[in-house]
Structure formats: C-alpha cells, structure tokens
Amino acid sequence: MTRGVVFDLDGTLVDSVADIAHAMNVAFAEWSLPAVAPVQVRAALGLGSLELVRRCVRAVAGDRAGDDALVGAVHDRYQAAYAADPAPNTRLYADAGDALPALHAAGVALGICTNKTTDVSRLVLRAVGLDGVIDALRGYDATRHPKPDPRHLLETIAELGLAADDVVYVGDNPVDLAVAGAAGVTYRHVAWGEPVRGDVVRLERFADLCPEPARS
Q1: What share of the chain is helix, strand, coil (3-state, %, to 5)?
Q2: Is the domain covering 17-84 a CATH 1.10.150 domain?
C-alpha cells in the first residue's frame, strides 16, 4: 500500500506558466530582450530557475544566452518579480483541490519535490489552498543535489519518514521520469504532461492515488 505521494509542482499540480511568463517579461524588458511567450516558458521548465532564464533568453535572443552575467542579472530580477506576486493566475490541474486533502485525510503523507525555490513554492501552495496538506516541501534551495539528481527526491521522501518503496512520485516531464527511475521510486505521469518514452502509467486524475477502502 502506498504510504506517501511526492509531487512535482509546476506542470504537475499547478499551471503556473502565465505568472512565470509575466515575471520573466518584467525582467526581460529591463534588458531590452523581446518578450517570451508562455509556450516558450512551458518548454523551458524543469531544471531550476537559472536554467529556465537561460532557456528563455535562448528562445528570444539566442546569441545572448551564453552571456552568464546577463543571464545572472535577468535571473535575479525575474526571481524578485515572481516572488512579489507569484500566483494571481496560477491554477490547479484536474481534481488536485479535492484529491490531495482526501489523501491527507486518509493518512497518506504528501510531499513536494520541485526546482522552484522553497519560499515561492510555499506561497504558490497557499494561493491554491494546498499548503495545509503538504507534509514535506523541498525546493531547489533546500538541497545540495537538486533534480535531475535523484537525491532531491530521496531527501523529500526521508523528510516524510518513509522509504523509496513506500512512495509514488508524480511528475510531468522526462526529468521527473528519470529522477524516479534513478531513485527506485514508483512513477506516475500526469496525462497533461510532456510526452515521455516507455511503458509509463498515466494519471488522469489525482483521486486515482487514493487508497481503496478496506473490504469487510
């Protein structure tokens, strides 16, 4: 029986692309970079905020993506803009608003393993009403080994007081699939996520993670 579920955040539990794109464009405007489109932001997610910024710069001004000083400065401005107002347009995917509280009430430990920073992740979870049901939250800044290193996931599982074979990890992209495999953790891929190769179980709704009631 699954004793815990760990979720990725962006693209898995929440659709945050509009808010990320807005903050990115606040930063881009200060360096006279062309605006980045939400679809370009979505394609750049998964490897932390610095790589997100670099990929977005590459998408709109490829010749400037190798300028580390520029990318670093844009990153700092983006982080400040995003933290100031991280979730006005962020929405939950599928039935997350009902299913996660139900999982929590059933005694299933819930964690978040994300390459977003911990403080901003907490603000986003509060905005969508899930902060009260999350037992462990580890952002990019809360580990020395962020995803795609599997230790990020294993540290989150340890914080829940569980072992790898007690847990299901739910993600939305090839990075999440690879992390779960390397950590030896059962993986579920949300149906709205990026295409991935292999025989992967797709999750249409989060309620499918809830334990079945005991039969008498």
Answers
A1: 50, 15, 40
A2: yes
Q: What is the Cα–Cα distance from 200 to 188, expressed in whole angstroms?
A: 7
Segment 27-67, tens digit of pLDDT: 999 999 999 999 999 999 888 889 999 999 999 999 899 99
Q: The tokens of 192 are what? A: 């709205």
Amino acid at 64: R
Active-site residue set: 8
Q: Where exactly does CATH 3.40.50.1000 map onto the chain?
A: 4-15+89-209
To which H or E segment does residue 5 belong? strand 4-7
Give how far Cα 116 sits from Cα of 1, 71, 112, 204, Å: 29, 17, 10, 24
Query: What global pTM score does this model have?
Result: 0.92
CATH of domain 4-15+89-209: 3.40.50.1000
Closest CA to 173 of 131, 114, 121, 120: 114
